[in-house]
C-alpha cells in the first residue's frame, strides 16, 4: 500500500466552482473533481445526465461519480490551449457543432430555465442587501421582455448550459465537453449564445449556418437576444459566488464587467 501511495502523483488544476486535480497512477492519468463546500448544484441530476451522454463519446470516460457529493473521477484528455484565434476558426466551430448536435438530440428529465434562475438569483441578492453597481431594474425589464419573446418558439434539446472555454477540450482533432453540472432540457440557443460570446460577427454567422444549414435574420436576432440572457445569468452567478469567496478570483468584479457590457448595449 505504501508503494502504491508513493506512485500516486497529484497536481492541482484550475477551476472556479470546484477543486480539480490531475491524478497520475502508474503512468495512467485521471482528473479528480471535488466540489467546493458552497457548491449547491444537484449532483443527482448530473449523475443521470452523465449516464446519458457517456456512451456517445462526447466527454471523457467517467470512472466514478458520487451523486450525493459530486466527487467525480474521469479519464484525462490532453487538450491544446484554445486561444481566441483558434476559437474563431471554422475548423473548431464545425467540430464543436458536430458534438453539440449529438448532445442536443438527447433527452433527460431535468429542465434548465435561465429566466427563472436569474430571477431567483436577483431576489436572493436583494434579500441579502447586495450592493449593485448598476440599475438592476433596467436589466430586469429587458430580461422580462426577452423571456416573453424567446419562450414563444423554443428549440428544445439537452443543453450543456455552461460552455465556457474551460469546459471544452480539443484533443487530437476531437472535441470533448466536461462539467455537466448545469445541464438540462432547454433552448439550445443558450448553448449557442454562450459559444458566440467570444466569436466575431462573421463567425457568429458561421455558427448559425453550420448548425441549422442556413442563415436568417430571425436566427441571428435570437442568438443575440440569448447572449443577453447568458451574460446576465453569468453575472448573477458571479455575484452570489462573491458573497462566499475563498479563491483569488474577484467574482464581483467579473460580474460588474459583464453588466457594464449589458448596460452599454441597451
TrEMBL record:
Sequence ranges assigned to domain Aminoglycoside phosphotransferase in this UniProt record: 14-216
Enumerate the InterPro entries for this protein.
Aminoglycoside_PTrfase (IPR002575), CcrZ_PhaseVar_Mediator (IPR052077), Kinase-like_dom_sf (IPR011009)
Q: What is this protein called?
A: Aminoglycoside phosphotransferase domain-containing protein
